[in-house]
Design a protein that fits this description.
With about 70 residues, the chain is α+β, with helices and mostly antiparallel strands. It contains 2 helices and 5 strands, in the order βαβββαβ.
């Protein structure tokens, strides 16, 4: 089972900082809503996902570790 990138939606304000760190995983639409492009993470995704979590000013992102 793959690790997952999880958004705490009530905390997310759509500022988009995370999308600069992980554009393959996240994007902001025209209405400033965060779009999760892919939530299941590969080993190669981990550095970018971790960077996105780290820069989120609202602490709305986290990585859920699976088994």
């Amino acid at each position: 089972m793959a690790d997952k990138l999880v958004v705490e939606w009530p905390l997310c304000d759509g500022n988009g900082v995370c999308t600069f760190e992980a554009p393959e995983l996240l994007e902001i639409d025209d209405d400033d809503n965060l779009i999760v492009l892919r939530d299941e993470l590969t080993e190669a995704d981990m550095p970018k996902a971790e960077a996105a979590v780290r820069v989120c000013p609202k602490h709305a992102l986290r990585i859920e570790r699976q088994g």
